[in-house]
Design goal:
With 596 residues, the protein is of the alpha/beta class. The chain contains 12 helices and 39 strands. A hairpin with a 5-residue loop joins strand 10 and strand 11. Helix 3 runs parallel beside helix 10. It is globular and about 80 Å long. One of its GO terms (biological process) is execution phase of apoptosis.
Length: 596
């Protein structure tokens, strides 16, 4: 039996890519020195169609059809690139072998229910189409056609697809952008983070061809915000989620440095801080959160930072080099900043109110293991205390005074003590906001106002995993999914959110992965060795596993995420069996209930 994989593109989709309903690039709107300006960039596809040129095609023999059993995956090398060959339910499929998000090898991921889940950050891709089905990330995988002939297995693929390992889904364009009034749009998206961008892209992918406007207080186009604390010296263009040309090609307008001050839901008008007004038909509010500041004396002096923008992160790195740094708050941001600066700064001190970092999130035992790792990397902790004063010398930060009486030398102070939802401008709008300031939405990301949706860190929504309890999940992956669900329901698809929260943190070259929602857990079952930092922790509530975290135990978190996504329950007594079957044997049949 022979297997061939051939890259093809349907004639229907090929014609879509070649057509431009608009015929020209849309304007990308920037706010420059208080003036709105239009920049028309030369229109061209982000990636040209790789199937027009026969010379771009490569064919190579890879394996025998009997080399793969059902439920197995294999990376196959075509000389100029690799593909992922998959066999499930007796059928072969072939897609790109790297996750388009950060390049994780998908062969080490989880194959289940017709999709493969990334082992690093949990993104999911349909094995039949390559389409992304869960996040993070924006692009899908290239798909290669599989043919079975005789006894050899061949793959025939585009060299470009093999090299890029990503595919942007087909998108519509705005039909007649030049006819629109600048102060009117069909869809207005407030916020240009992951939720806002995915919403805009999903609308275009679903064929929406009316006007879309995104607005943001930031001066940059949407960027990879988690890298602000994980890779602090990255420049904005290095962490941009899409290049400028993308927004022009697909007619997604972006208003930068524009803050919405109020929303009139009766008139469907957004009022900006500078007085500009924009009428909308559908509205997405994805404003994220605002970092909390210190309340002590000296909080506004120079060299005290909240990490909110690339410029903030870059400046902290520059000022911290060979200097004394104090970080207030052992949050994800605070711990990641401490880890990043450990080898660059002269000293790094971390101040935290709790007695163990991450206690509420990872539990005390895991928190202590992480704390020990930081202490082994020269991070000094000052626990169960707060900052009482910031002292200056010649206008610059000199010392951080703690309530315990300790005085720390400090040239730079980074504050990571939490955040509040950026929803203050909605207080008089009539949009339902809870006592903590979060926008309340249903499973379709709809607010109490028809045509108004909300997504991302600023919302509470019903989480199916926790019996539809209203929760706030401020994770990068979840913001992506919120944006997609909101877009689909703007188009009246009636799609409800059903996803498992997934997050990660990276410190000192090690990653901690986490899936589920462990709020209120009452026990932690740990497998592995905390001292060796090779472990998996199961968080339980009333005997049911509600979340899992791991370090150096891939892909256990992605496997458990797939179990939870399938609607199955893991009991505390099942943890040993889960680890044995999923990690030591690699058997995933228990996921669908077919195994014992």
């Amino acid at each position: 039996v022979e297997v061939k994989i051939e890259v093809v593109i349907p004639e229907k989709e090929r014609s879509k890519e070649e057509m431009s309903p608009n015929g020209k690039a849309s304007p990308l709107i920037y706010k420059v020195n208080g003036t709105a300006r239009h920049y028309h960039l030369e229109e061209h596809p982000i990636a040209s169609n790789p199937y027009h040129n026969p010379k771009d095609v490569v064919e190579a023999s890879v394996c025998h059809v009997k080399d793969l059993e059902n439920g197995q995956m294999r990376e196959v090398d075509l000389g100029c690139g690799k593909a992922l060959l998959i066999k499930e339910s007796g059928e072969f499929h072939a897609v790109g072998h790297k996750c388009p998000h950060y390049g994780a090898p998908l062969v080490k991921g989880v194959l289940s229910r017709g999709r493969v889940r990334c082992p690093w950050h949990g993104a999911c891709f349909n094995i039949g189409t390559g389409d992304i089905e869960d996040f993070p990330g924006l692009d899908s995988l290239p798909r290669f056609q599989v043919k079975i002939e005789k006894e050899k297995v061949y793959i025939r693929a585009s060299k470009q697809a093999l090299q890029t390992q990503r595919r942007t889904k087909m998108m519509a364009k705005c039909i007649s952008l030049s006819n629109y009034n600048l102060s009117s749009t069909n869809v207005l998206i407030i916020g240009a983070g992951a939720a806002g961008l995915v919403c805009a892209e999903t609308l275009r992918q679903e064929g929406f061809s009316d006007r879309i406007v995104m607005c943001t207080m930031d001066r940059h186009l949407p960027y990879d915000r988690p890298k602000l604390s994980k890779s602090m010296d990255s420049h904005p263009e290095q962490i941009a989620l899409r290049p400028k040309e993308f927004f022009c090609t697909y007619d997604i307008e972006v208003l930068t440095e524009m803050q919405v001050a109020a929303v009139d839901i009766k008139s469907k008008i957004a009022v900006f801080k500078d007085g500009f007004k924009m009428e909308y038909n559908k509205l997405l509010i994805a404003t994220g959160n605002t970092p909390k500041t210190l309340s002590c004396k000296g909080k506004e002096m120079e060299n005290v930072f909240n990490i909110r923008t690339p410029e903030d992160a870059n400046r902290v790195v520059k000022l911290a080099t060979s200097k004394n740094v104090v970080i207030v708050g052992a949050s994800f941001l605070g711990m990641e900043v401490a880890a990043y600066l450990a080898e660059r700064a002269h000293s790094v001190s971390l101040v935290e109110l709790e007695h163990v970092p991450f206690k509420k999130f990872f539990g005390e035992r895991v928190g202590r293991a992480i704390m020990k790792m930081f202490e082994n990397n020269r991070i000094k902790f000052y626990m169960q205390t707060e900052v009482s004063e910031l002292r200056e010398q010649e206008g610059k930060l000199k010392e951080v005074v703690l309530k315990s009486g300790k005085v720390l030398r400090a040239d730079v102070c980074v504050v990571g003590v939490g955040a509040v939802p950026a929803t203050g401008f909605l207080k008089q709008s009539g949009i339902n906001i809870d006592s903590k300031g979060f926008i309340v939405v249903n499973k379709m990301m709809q607010t109490n106002i028809p045509g108004v949706f909300a997504a991302g860190d600023a919302v509470t929504f019903p989480l199916a995993l926790r019996n539809n309890k209203k929760v706030n999940v401020p994770h990068w992956q979840m913001a992506h999914m919120h944006g997609r669900i909101a877009a689909l329901n703007m188009l009246a698809h009636g799609t409800e959110i059903s996803t498992v929260p997934y997050l990660w943190t990276a410190v000192f070259g090690k990653s901690i992965r986490y899936a589920g929602h462990g709020e209120g857990f009452d026990d932690v079952v740990i497998q592995g060795d905390l001292d060796e930092l090779k472990f998996v922790a199961f968080y339980t509530k009333s005997d049911e596993v509600v979340a899992v975290a791991s370090m150096n135990y891939d892909p256990i978190v992605s496997k458990v995420a797939e179990v939870l996504a399938a609607g199955r329950t893991i009991r505390k007594r099942d943890v040993d069996v889960v680890v044995f079957l999923s990690f030591r044997t690699g058997d995933m049949s228990w996921l669908t209930g077919k195994g014992s």
